[in-house]
Amino acid sequence: MKKFFAIVALAAAMFTVNSSVANAQNWDDFNYRLKVTHTKDYIQKGDDEFRMGQYEKAMDSYKRAREYNEYKGHTVVPAQEIERKMDRCAEAIRFGYRPSSSRREEVSDAGAIVAGVAILGGIIANAVSSKKEAPAQAAPAQAAKPTQAVQTSNSNALCEVACNGLVYTTKADNKACRVRSIKNEGDFTVVEMQYFNLNNHSTDVWINADTYLKDRNANRIYSPCKFEAIYSDKKLNVMPGDSHIFRIYYDRISDECSQADVIEPGSSNWKFYNVPVSK
User: Fold this and answer.
1) DSSP character for 23?
2) Cα 15–Cα 20–Cα 25 angle in degrees, nearest 5
3) Rounded to the nearest 5 degrees, what angle is found at the Cα of 92, between the Cα atoms of 270 and 110?
């Protein structure tokens, strides 16, 4: 009889332990699903607020999304995605959301013309957005905060910017495109760049086929071998609020090269100087 009660007690204990483990797993699943829901909801809320020009509110929503994004070492979305959205939001706040009117931007049909309304007795202001041009150039965007902006109308003025751990200079009116890295990979030197569309409309981007790389140490210029995720002969559409990473491949530069320039010729403001080369 004692043996029978011992077996019953052992079975009860095992049932209790299994139930506790199952409850713990169910609780973890519930908490994780809650994190997923909150993270995605706040990201969507931030995106909506950003498109409406409510940048401060959008920043708060992205911060809340970041708080919910991690649970027991796991993330709902890549942390970099939220940080990128916060960076573009901070950029919009800093510059008052002034999309560039350079020759690189082509507006979609929905946003082609911005018309003013009659104010104080009939004063009408019409603002026409960017002009359409041949697809030898690409559209502007913002990808990183300039550490120092040059406030001048001089089209040749430069400013220092920081992106992805790199510090270099670019045209002062280029608040659009950034170089993420320059590094040797096998037989090629790969330039990785990033474009952010902070406009409230979709934007077409492309690049000049003659965009060259200059080895500043050897004073040698390289022509592109191929493009990845961007074209020189057709356009690539980027939706509002999205970013796009693309790469340009060149013949491998010298391993001794420590800094390089990436230059899209002509009137383009996609010109980058003294970009550190990753080893």
Assistant:
1) H
2) 125
3) 80
Contact yes or no for 180/164 (Cβ under 8 A): yes
The rounded distance, in Å, linking the Cα atoms of 165 and 22 is: 45
276-to-103, 170, 207 alpha-carbon distances in Å = 28, 13, 22
Query: Residue 186, Cβ neighbours under 10 Å: how many?
Result: 8
Q: Which two tokens stand for residue 248?
A: 């340009």
Q: What does the DSSP 8-state code read for residue 126?
A: E
Cα–Cα distance, 239 to 200 (Å, whole number): 9
Give the three-state DSSP class for 255: coil
Q: Whole-prediction pTM value?
A: 0.49
CB atoms within 10 A of CB 64: 17
Under 8 Å between Cβ of 168 and 74: no
Residues 171 and 269: their CA atoms lie apart, in Å, by 6
d(CA 24, CA 17): 11
Rounded to 5 degrees, φ, ψ at 49 are: -65, -35
**Residue carrying the six token digits 């009659």:** 118
End-to-end CA distance of the chain: 76
User: Of the ranges 169-178, 239-248, 257-266, which is most confident?
Assistant: 257-266
CA angle 92-248-183, nearest 5°? 90
Q: Is the predicted pLDDT of residue 269 greater than 50, yes or no?
A: yes
- Count of H helices and E strands in the chain? 3, 17
Instruction: Express each pLDDT in 187-231 by its tens digit.
Output: 999 999 999 887 888 989 999 999 999 999 999 999 999 999 999
Chain Cα centroid distance, residue 105:
17
